[in-house]
Design a protein that fits this description.
The chain is α+β, with helices and mostly antiparallel strands. The longest helix is centred in the first third of the chain and has 18 residues.
Length: 164
């Protein structure tokens, strides 16, 4: 939670999981648990969620991830976020996906660039104290056509699921 204004307690974490599950019921997508394949250890989450109101891109869909610190810099966030993008563009037929983070969160910004998102704009995140170094935020975005071209350039064959 280094790049978040505060940590959640057990009650807040449980409420967050309830919101994740409700998202699947309402939209058919949400945030998935991330486990290590070698140990089945839960290491965080990734997936798709609606952009919040009051920020650039609101009304759109965001790809996000949070991993336990012990699992940073091992490629898990990139791998999980790439799977979320594939689901967004192929299965959910979403036209564009955003991602936002604190401007100082260079690790997440690197993941955003690795998965093909481009920096779109900077903004002040509402509700975070003006003096906080976490208030300045950035928004990255990728469109379905950009994602498909990137996958083709990487030599990745089209998925068997049908997109638009």
């Amino acid at each position: 939670m280094r790049y978040f204004p505060s940590a959640r307690d057990a009650r807040q974490s449980g409420e967050m999981v309830d919101r994740f599950e409700a998202g699947f019921d309402a939209r058919g997508y949400g945030l998935w648990a991330v486990e290590r394949l070698d140990s089945a250890e839960f290491i965080g989450f990734t997936g798709l969620t609606p952009m919040i109101d009051g920020i650039p891109g609101s009304g759109g869909v965001e790809v996000g991830w949070r991993l336990a610190r012990a699992h940073w810099r091992q490629g898990f966030a990139t791998e999980a976020a790439e799977a979320a993008l594939e689901f967004a563009f192929v299965s959910a037929e979403i036209d564009e996906v955003h991602s936002v983070t604190a401007a100082v969160n260079e690790p997440s910004r690197r993941v955003m660039r690795r998965i093909g998102l481009r920096h779109i704009d900077d903004f002040a995140y509402p509700g975070i104290d003006e003096a906080s170094p976490l208030r300045p935020h950035v928004r990255y975005r990728i469109r379905r056509e950009e994602w498909a071209a990137l996958r083709q350039a990487q030599g990745v064959k089209p998925s068997s699921s049908s997109g638009r």
